């Protein structure tokens, strides 16, 4: 059974009291209450920042009257503060002009169900966790220095683990809650080699799981989990590899026949190139590059062997850094089929855009601590449409590639209506079906409508544990991914430049 939020009865009573008052003034009202309890540590080059206890809470109020809408951020879940916010909202509604298209909200499906989520610890042993991270991460670096004489390895990291609670209530009597844990680790590794050459990578781990996902108690002490230690060691080793990496000039890049994207690169590629264009508020505003303002697709967005989805990974609902069970309007989060066989099939909705486009709400509305609840991606990923050309291993996927480039990892991306760009952390040259050399970091860009039309095959299972923080006026935890490896034929709509 899903856990209760802290002081659930009190929270419900305060929200219902405010909503009873709002019902006397407006046609519809709802409230979102969010609370986060977090521990956090950052090891930076010149200092160590530790936050052994941090708590934040906010409320968002929404009022509807005669087709008009107002949304207000409220500092605390306090009866007087909520009453004042409602009074302010009513005044704003009276001053607001009637919009050309009245605001409507699609109904909340399954309104009777109350509790969602998974167990999240109330107490977080910050001191012991912080000590283990500092000790174990730096120990891995020192071991690698001994294996690589002359290399100076400087790790920096950022870790947090938190308990998230939220409650949604409205003037029709809906009351829903969710409790979730969420844990994150980012590692930045800088290596200074012989002659002073500097190389750098960034690696992340994150999931809707307790801190034991990263740090686990063994006997009387805490240590990195084997999975976390392997991930950290692997990316430190890659940073050392980059010391001997080669570059490719424009002619050599032009001669490449294929790119093979690791899921950590593909995920950002899909998120930036296509994902935002599926968000229904962007579509409604006429800013989507793939769907017109009336909701009609502008064209094919991927090859026939590509499906694009957003939400929980089918069969594994607890994977993915952006996973939640209900959105911030109380709608159960569904796995949304955005494109099937390369053809656009759906959008990411909140209740307002669902009503506007005569669609079902699908759990896409999210807020950052009291901000507006707008359509947002959660975990956006590629799913092969068929088993054809979906191999078990990378070796089989690249066996017939005469000259290609593997791209792995990313330090972030940027998006526009027409395209995207992403910084890739490391590459590997493929020659006659074999990996031969390590390649310097690169910048990878593509046009939106053509980004995935040249996908030829895949290797490995679908993974959505690439970790991101998506900005859209507010920050949202997201996951990205796809099959471990995705093969794309080089084409005129993709551009690549390599450092060096």
TrEMBL record:
Chain segments annotated as transmembrane: none
Domain of life assignment: Bacteria
Family matches, as InterPro entries: Metalloprtase-TldD/E_C, Peptidase_U62_metallo, TldD/PmbA_N, TldD/PmbA_sf
Organism the protein comes from: candidate division WOR-3 bacterium
Family stated for the protein in its record: Belongs to the peptidase U62 family.
Recorded GO CC terms: cytosol
Name of the molecule in the record: TldD/PmbA family protein
A Pfam family hit: PmbA_TldD_3rd
GO molecular function annotations of the record: metallopeptidase activity
Domain Metalloprotease TldD/E C-terminal residue range list: 260-463
An annotated GO BP: proteolysis
């Amino acid at each position: 059974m899903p856990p209760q939020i802290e002081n659930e009865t009190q929270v419900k009573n305060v929200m219902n009291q405010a909503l009873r008052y709002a019902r006397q003034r407006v046609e519809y009202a709802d409230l979102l209450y969010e609370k986060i309890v977090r521990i956090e540590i950052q090891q930076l080059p010149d200092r160590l920042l530790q936050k052994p206890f941090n708590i934040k809470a906010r409320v968002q109020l929404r009022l509807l009257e005669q087709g008009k809408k107002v949304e207000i951020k409220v500092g605390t879940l306090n009866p007087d503060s909520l009453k004042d916010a409602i009074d302010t909202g009513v005044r704003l509604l009276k001053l607001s002009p009637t919009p050309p298209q009245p605001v409507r909200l699609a109904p909340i499906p399954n309104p009777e169900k109350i509790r969602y989520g998974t167990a999240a610890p109330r107490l977080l042993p910050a001191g012991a966790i912080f000590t283990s991270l500092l000790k174990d991460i730096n120990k891995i670096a020192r071991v690698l220095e001994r294996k690589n004489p002359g290399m100076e390895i400087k790790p920096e990291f950022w870790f947090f683990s938190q308990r998230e609670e939220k409650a949604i209530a409205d003037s029709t009597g809906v009351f829903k809650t969710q409790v979730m844990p969420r844990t994150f680790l980012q590692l930045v590794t800088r290596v200074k080699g012989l002659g002073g050459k500097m190389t750098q990578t960034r690696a992340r781990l994150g999931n809707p799981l307790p801190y034991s996902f990263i740090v686990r108690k063994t006997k009387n002490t805490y240590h990195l989990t084997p999975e976390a230690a392997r991930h950290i060691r692997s990316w430190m080793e890659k940073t050392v590899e980059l010391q001997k990496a080669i570059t490719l000039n424009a002619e050599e890049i032009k001669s490449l026949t294929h790119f093979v994207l690791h899921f950590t690169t593909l995920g950002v590629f899909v998120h930036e190139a296509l994902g935002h264009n599926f968000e229904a508020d962007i579509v409604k505003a006429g800013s989507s590059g793939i769907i017109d303002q009336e909701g009609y697709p502008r064209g094919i967005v991927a090859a026939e062997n590509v499906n694009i989805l957003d939400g929980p990974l089918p069969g594994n609902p607890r994977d993915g850094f952006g996973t939640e069970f209900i959105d911030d309007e109380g709608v159960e989060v569904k796995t949304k089929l955005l494109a099937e066989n390369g053809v656009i099939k759906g959008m990411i909705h909140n209740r307002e855009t669902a009503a506007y486009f005569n669609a079902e709400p699908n759990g896409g509305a999210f807020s950052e601590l009291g901000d507006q609840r707008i359509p947002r991606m959660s975990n956006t990923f590629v799913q092969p449409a068929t088993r054809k050309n979906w191999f078990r291993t990378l070796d089989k996927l690249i066996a017939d590639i005469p000259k290609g480039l593997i791209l792995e990892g990313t330090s972030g991306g940027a998006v526009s209506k027409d395209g995207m760009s992403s910084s890739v952390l490391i590459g590997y040259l493929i020659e006659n079906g074999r990996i031969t050399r390590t390649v310097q970091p690169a910048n990878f860009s593509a046009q939106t409508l053509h980004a995935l039309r040249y996908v030829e095959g895949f290797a490995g299972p679908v993974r959505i544990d690439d970790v991101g923080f998506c900005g859209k006026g507010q920050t949202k935890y997201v996951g990205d991914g796809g099959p471990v490896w995705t093969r794309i034929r080089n084409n005129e709509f993709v551009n690549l430049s390599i450092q060096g």
